[in-house]
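Hey, can you fold this one?
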Amino acid sequence: MMFSYLIGDGKKGFVDQFYKEKTVYIGNGISLLDRLDYFSGNGGMAIEMTERIYECPPFPDLLKQQQQQQQQQQQQQQQQIQQEQQLPFQ
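Sure. Predicted structure:
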């Protein structure tokens, strides 16, 4: 069973009455990672949804856009660092 947090303070699998009020059931899925991988901070697809309660499109395109934006920001930062290194000392 898949639940989504309605606020951003999820407690890594901890569910009690307080948190049940802040989650919503979104469907069933198959885990593609083990528990340690979920909380290690790595990105990627973690759950393959098998049944959804709403016919919404999946997020891969959204994730790709975010990754592209992050890569562009990193490239800009690297270019800025390189430009600063090329400036003569004053």
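Strands lie at 2-5, 23-31, 47-52. Let me know if you want another pass with a different chain boundary.
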